[in-house]
């Protein structure tokens, strides 16, 4: 695996993890009962974005290390996904 593909793999893990972590523990204006006129009640009041970014970075790193170990060790290769025997 080249450096570029490793960085792209990490970015994919980071964004997928971030999209999963993003809605956790969000306090909306409707939950707090303080709705600002002209905004939606579901607009976040306290989103804890910095903490979620750090959690995302840690979880994505662990998943990335596991994926890199699997890819570099050869446990799973491209030929394992050759279901129609086109690779010879």
Number of strands: 2
Query: What gap, in angstroms, lies between the N and C termini?
Result: 22 Å
Low-pLDDT windows of residues: none
Compute the CA-based radius of gyration: 20 Å
- What count of helical segments does DSSP give? 3
Order of helices and strands: HEHEH
Could you estimate the helical fraction of the residues in percent? 40-55%
- What percentage of the residues does DSSP assign to strands (E)? 5-15%
Task: Please summarize what this structure is.
With 88 residues, the chain is mostly helical. It is built from three helices and two strands.
Can you describe what's shown?
This protein has 88 residues and is mainly alpha-helical. Helix content is 55%, strand content 6%. The chain is built from three helices and two strands. The protein has helices spanning 3-21, 29-32, 49-73; strands at residues 27-28, 44-46. Strands 1-2 form a two-stranded antiparallel sheet. Helix 1 (3-21) crosses helix 3 (49-73). The radius of gyration is 20 Å and the shape is elongated.
């Amino acid at each position: 695996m080249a450096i570029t593909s490793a960085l792209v793999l990490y970015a994919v893990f980071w964004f997928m993890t971030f999209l999963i972590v993003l809605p956790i523990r969000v306090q909306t204006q409707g939950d707090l009962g303080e709705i600002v006129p002209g905004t939606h009640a579901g607009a976040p009041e306290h989103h804890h974005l910095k903490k979620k970014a750090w959690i995302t970075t840690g979880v994505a790193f662990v998943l990335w290390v596991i994926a890199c170990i699997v890819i570099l060790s050869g446990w799973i290769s491209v030929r394992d996904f050759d279901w129609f025997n086109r690779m010879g």
